[in-house]
Amino acid sequence: MEKLNKDQIRNLLPHREPMLLIDELYDIKKLTSATALVNVKTDSFFVQGHFPGQPVMPGVLIVESFGQAAAALTASGLDKSTYENKLVFLMGVEKARFRNPVIPDCELILKIKAIRSHGRVWKYQGEAFVEDKKMADAIWSATIVDKK
């Protein structure tokens, strides 16, 4: 699978609007790396309050987008029985740097890599770009857990 659209991502992740942030996952290298697209729009749910008259995508939502892209990358590479009835929880963010504000209307491109896995625990790194300008980067870990 080299490309996933929003409907295919919805089939892999439990997130739903407005919290399903990634619109597409492509350049997928099974369980290794992928690129995600987040359409940051002027009518995105956070724009009205963050900040009125000068909207900026919150850094926490950039980190959330990284996590969703990583979860979709991982789920797309695993056997369905491995992730069915499971959730992926963020365990920690070791480093997150926000270099430039992400201002709507833009396409935020996330380049993510799985850098280590041990059982149900995965570690990732990612970089976020708008028009080839680095906006943020992070290293984070997540775990796959049973739904309750």
Describe the structure.
The protein has a single domain (3-146), classed as Hotdog Thioesterase (Thiol Ester Dehydrase, Chain A), CATH 3.10.129.10. It has three helices and seven strands; from the N terminus they run E-H-E-E-H-H-E-E-E-E. The radius of gyration is 15 Å and the shape is globular. A hairpin with a 3-residue loop joins strand 2 and strand 3. Strands 1-2-3-5-6-7-4 form a seven-stranded antiparallel beta sheet. The model has no long low-confidence stretch (mean pLDDT 94). With 148 residues, it is of the alpha+beta class.
- CATH class equals Alpha Beta
DSSP summary: helix tally: 3
Low-confidence stretches: none
Q: How many discrete structural domains?
A: 1
Main-sheet strand order equals 1-2-3-5-6-7-4
Structural class: alpha+beta
- Please state the overall shape, judged from the principal axes of the Cα atoms: globular
Instruction: From the 3D structure, determine the CATH topology.
Output: Thiol Ester Dehydrase, Chain A
**What is the average of the pLDDT values?**
94
The CATH homologous superfamily is termed: Hotdog Thioesterase
Distance between the termini: 29 Å
Helical fraction equals 10-25%
Instruction: Tell me the series of helices and strands, N- to C-terminal.
Output: EHEEHHEEEE
Radius of gyration: 15 Å
